[in-house]
Amino acid sequence: MAKIAGFFVTKNTVFQMTIDTKEAKGNPYLSDEEKKKRRVWIEETVSKMVKEKKTRMEIDAFLAENGIEVVPLQSNYRLNDDVGIASDKSTDITMFDAYAYYDNLLREYIVEGHMQWKRKPDYDSTPYWYYDITQEGEVGGYEGVGLEVEYHENTNLVDYSLVSLNSKGNLYRHRNADDWDRHVGVTYKVQDYAEYNFVEPSTWRNWDYTFDSYHIYTYWTLDGPIGRLGIKHRYGHTWDSTSVTSTSIGWPGGISFTFSSSSNRWDAVSNPAYWVFY
Q1: What is the Cα 140 distance to its own chain's centre?
Q2: According to DSSP H, which parts of the chain are helical?
Q3: Residue 230, domain member (yes or no)
Q4: Is residue 22 assigned to a domain?
């Protein structure tokens, strides 16, 4: 039974595990409905535990009890972490490192990207998205979200999902991708919304935002070794009258967003993590 060595590489540290290649080709004994339920459970569990500020160690331990192994990273959540001026540059957010798991039930790899809006270091911990809100409802036009893996003929993208959350932890599922590529990844074009619910005068806490954070999930099978592939995710934010008009993904080029205007928008991308199988 052939085996391949699996690594995830971040910075200068490499961790190794060995996975049977047969176990990376999907579980033929699960129905499509059973696979769907499993993936939804994974997405909701991870997204909510992160929002509840559970540590990755706590999340990983819980998933391990349910047959899901971490494809190891030395550390994660380390990217683009500078505070910027609200609505002026993409450093109002944190683009975390891509994270990876192997599900022994699905027999698939799960590669996830996560974004979180930052809070201003003031007395009220005001989130930076608050400064883009002028009224209840749509906040500008569409947002763009995508996750890409460098092209290799042995990778197969078999499913994907985008989950966004507001600051209270309410979860919004986005299933309809704007574009996808079997060997590279997926992009979304999604409308974001401001929500109003009076709490007290003169505070941002009367407002919430359906894109306070997101998790983009991709599910992969492998036909064999893939060498060393970079993984990153991208977020395009708009407000006022600007919108993401189209997204695309392919190779070469990876993720691309087209905006309706050069103002009232920015995009941010995570630094790559590396998925290595020889």
Answers
A1: 21
A2: 32-51, 56-64
A3: yes
A4: yes
111 inside domain: yes
Number of structural domains in the chain:
1
Residue type, position 49, single letter: M
In a domain, 130, yes or no: no
Contact 251, 151 (CB under 8 A): yes
- What is the domain extent for residue 237? 3-123+140-192+210-273
124-165 pLDDT, tens digit per residue, is 899 999 999 989 999 999 999 999 999 999 999 999 999 999
Report the amino acid identity of residue 231.
Answer: I
User: Do residues 253 and 189 lie in contact, with contact meaning Cβ atoms separated by under 8 Å?
Assistant: no
- C-alpha 155/C-alpha 126 separation (Å) is 41
Residue 83 has pLDDT above 60, yes or no: no
**Helix, strand, or coil here: 174?**
strand
The DSSP line for 84-131 is: --TTTSGGGEEEPPPEEEEETTTTEEEEEEEEEE-B-SSTT--BGGGG
> What global pTM score does this model have?
0.87
Query: What is the rounded distance in angstroms from the CA atom of residue 23 to the CA atom of residue 102?
Result: 10
Q: Which of the pair, 212 or 76, is modelled with greater confidence? A: 212
Find out whether 206 and 124 touch, Cβ atoms under 8 Å: no
Spatial distance between the Cα atoms of 51 and 195, rounded to a whole number of angstroms: 18
